[in-house]
Specification:
Layout (H helix, E strand, L loop, with lengths): L3 E11 L15 E10 L4 E5 L7 H16 L7 H11 L7 H22 L3 H4 L7 E5 L9 H13 L4 E5 L5 H15 L4 E5 L6 H11 L6 E3 L7 H10 L4 E3 L6 H9 L5 E2 L3 H4 L2 H13 L10 H8 L8 E3 L12 E3 L2 E3 L12 H7 E7 L1
Parallel strand pairs: 4-5, 4-10, 5-6, 6-7, 7-8, 8-9
Antiparallel strand pairs: 1-2, 1-13, 2-3, 4-12, 11-12
Enzyme class: lyase
GO molecular function: hydro-lyase activity; magnesium ion binding
Protein name: L-talarate/galactarate dehydratase
């Protein structure tokens, strides 16, 4: 064990390579808070989280003004205690996205530091449940794309070995969504998975209506159909359809996932390490879902979720949306449509610090 000697805070903004649209928003840029924690022995752990274009500067202020100073002099290996102390320090701003994003950047850095000191890759340190995880892609399914391009992208993904593709839904009329999904299903056949994502765009009656129209297409899941804080609406939807209902990217606490699972309001958990507050609560959600026999299919951040998916037994899919390759020396390893976690100690992300330096908008140091 070694005490924390310094904490460095950076903000790096990454631009999407393709236009990304859904039923309620457009992905403007990935504001990326990066936290580097160095202990008294000189070992450094690096963590990060993200926004989709707004709030990044607020996360940085929360880190600089309220969270990072509390880490100095603490034992870096006391991750659970540190997480709870930091959470209660800013308890008045929880449960919420900005606080969870800030906590996630710190918590992932602490886990990276622990894994590096132990000489273990994250997927083994956190559980070591499996060697790889199947991939589905979201990059060719954005809402603005015409059916012909959706089909083209899905066929390319299938040829590359991916097991499925996510298609965004939420066009003005249900018939448009059905036409888009039907075109893809006709092209890829019955033995390839199609996921859908409404990004909280529907009311309960409209979600029930669309689910009924989607059922003949044998979809893998219907993601975030209704506003994420309405557990009972999701429960009523789940009772009204044979489609699996997926939630998680807009939930920020263990208790929120507990409410969904206890209410039988979802059948797939999409817990996001950057939204739940880091690896510490992510693992708790995954194991809680396992107790309910519910699979975990995390949202976004594939570069860190690949290790977490391989740490737990109930992971089913990893979402493919590349974003860190512009600031890393190499990307995630993929073979035959499956993602393989790095065997290097730590999170397994090979940061390119020269490129990060050129894209850094904010840098501060504590200690």
């Amino acid at each position: 064990m070694a005490r924390i000697a310094s904490v460095e805070i950076l903000q790096v903004d990454l631009q999407p390579k393709v236009r990304r649209t859904d039923a309620v928003q457009s992905f403007e840029r990935q504001e990326t808070p990066i936290v580097r924690i160095t202990d008294a022995d000189g070992v450094t752990g690096t963590g990060y989280s993200y926004t989709i274009g707004t709030g990044g500067s607020s996360v940085i202020r929360l880190l600089d003004d309220h969270l990072a100073p509390l880490l100095l002099g603490r034992e870096a290996d006391d991750i659970e205690q540190l997480w709870r102390d930091l959470m209660y320090r800013v308890h008045a701003t929880t449960v919420g996205a900005l606080t969870s994003i800030a906590l996630a950047a710190i918590d992932t850095a602490l886990w990276d530091l622990r894994a590096r000191r132990a000489g273990l890759p994250l997927h083994r340190l956190a559980g070591g449940a499996k060697a790889d995880i199947p991939l589905y892609t979201t990059e060719g399914g954005w809402l603005h794309l015409p059916p012909s391009q959706l089909v083209e992208e899905a066929l390319k993904a299938r040829e590359a070995g991916f097991g499925g593709a996510k298609i965004k839904v939420g066009r003005p009329h249900v018939a448009e969504d059905v036409a888009r999904l039907s075109a893809v299903r006709a092209a890829v056949g019955a033995d390839w998975d199609i996921m859908t994502d409404a990004n909280q765009g529907f009311s309960l009656p409209e979600a029930i209506r669309r689910a009924r129209c989607f059922e003949p297409l044998d979809l893998a899941w219907f993601e975030e159909p209704i506003h994420a804080d309405d557990v009972q609406a999701h429960r009523r939807l789940s009772q009204s359809t044979t489609l699996p209902v997926a939630v998680g990217e807009s939930l920020y606490s263990l208790s929120q996932f507990k409410d969904y699972l206890q209410s039988e309001a979802c059948s797939i958990v999409q817990v996001d390490v950057g939204r739940i507050g880091g690896i510490t609560p992510w693992l708790k959600v995954a194991h809680m879902a396992e107790a309910y026999n519910v699979p975990v299919c995390p949202h976004f951040l594939m570069e860190i979720h690949v290790a977490l998916c391989c740490a737990v037994p109930n992971s089913r899919w990893l979402e493919y949306i590349p974003q860190l390759d512009m600031v890393t020396e190499h990307g995630m390893r993929i073979e035959n449509g499956r993602a393989i976690p790095s065997d290097a100690p730590g999170l397994g992300i090979a940061w390119d610090w020269d490129r990060i330096g050129k894209l850094t908008l904010h840098r501060s140091r504590h200690g």
